[in-house]
Design a protein that fits this description.
EC number: 7.4.2.1
Distance between the termini: 21 Å
Membrane topology: Peripheral membrane protein
Strand order of the largest sheet: 6-7-8-3-9-10
Subcellular location: Cell membrane
Bound molecules: adenosine-5'-diphosphate, magnesium ion
Order of helices and strands: EEEHEEHEHHHEHEHEEHH
Structural class: alpha/beta
Oligomer: single chain
Domain ABC transporter: 18-252
Shape: globular
Pfam family, one: ABC_tran
Number of strands: 10
């Protein structure tokens, strides 16, 4: 196996928003993240791809500390991840996360889903929170669904609400973990279009996805993971037309 890496300048700059240095994590005997070095610049869109079980979700989850790490360091906007308490709640608000399974609050309306975090974590005023929520719901194309419950919406609509909910916290970075994998095919594009627009608007994004069209058109960089390691990183054109590692070649030959 050839290991190829085009890691950028190792010296952090003011524009480095997410920095992982030599991050390691185990689940028991499984070394799920191995010496991960990854720097994401402000405004950058990084697509993470790789075989199932390679550690992509775990990587995302360490960035907002849904998972702890065993060694190494993670910084968001120059600050190490807090361990607990209010600081951690604020970090989670700064790092928006969208999951495959939407994870909306089932017993709250769409509007409540998008105001809750603003009220609890950001201590926003109720009226302002609702106005912001309605604007965001309009922006992701579900403004007319505000008073419904999640179960009354399609999967594509629910996922767009989940995106609006994360955006309501004014996150510095958005993590998407296979946001379209649970959707019926006809709903995939409506979610990808919202993500494309976010990328165009300059949001810093880490996107785990099998949607190679999205990777080609929206990503600044593709990170390919296998067996807990970053095996290869490259601009999308370069990665898709000329993958350098055997692992990436093999992976692409199966999915393209
Ligand atoms: P991916 O998202 O690339 O499919 P994951 O990060 O979900 O990979 O998982 C990487 C490996 O870690 C898999 O072998 C998975 O079974 C294992 N794993 C993930 N979460 C846990 C956990 N909470 N406890 C034990 N093993 C886990
Ligand atoms: Mg996963």
């Amino acid at each position: 196996m050839t290991e190829v890496s085009v890691t950028k300048d190792a010296v952090p700059t003011a524009d480095d928003l997410v920095v992982l240095r030599n991050v390691n994590k185990h689940f028991g005997a499984l070394h799920v993240l191995q010496d991960i070095d990854l720097t994401i610049a402000r405004g950058e869109v990084v697509v993470v791809i790789g075989p199932s079980g390679s550690g992509k979700s775990t990587l995302c989850r360490t960035i907002n500390r849904l998972e702890s790490i065993d060694s190494g360091e993670i910084k968001i906007d120059g600050r190490p991840l807090p361990q607990e308490g209010k600081e951690l709640a604020r970090l989670r608000a700064d790092v928006g996360m969208v999951f495959q399974s939407f994870n909306l609050f089932a017993h709250k309306t769409v509007l409540e889903n998008v105001t809750l975090g603003q009220l609890k974590v950001r201590k926003a005023d109720k009226k302002a929170a609702e106005e912001k929520a309605r604007n965001l719901l309009d922006r992701v194309g579900v403004g007319t669904q505000a008073d419904k419950y999640p179960a009354q919406l399609s999967g594509g609509q629910q996922q767009r609400v989940a995106i609006a909910r994360a955006l309501a916290m004014d996150p510095k970075v958005m993590l998407f973990d296979e946001p379209t994998s649970a959707l019926d095919p006809e709903m995939i594009n409506e979610v990808l279009e919202v993500m494309q627009q976010l990328a165009r608007d300059g949001m810093t994004m880490v996107v785990v996805t099998h949607e190679m069209g999205f990777a080609r058109s929206a990503a600044n960089r593709v990170v390919f993971m296998a067996d807990g390691r970053i095996v290869e990183e490259a601009a999308p054109d370069q990665f898709f037309s000329n993958p350098r590692s055997d692992r990436a070649k093999d992976f692409l030959s199966k999915i393209l």
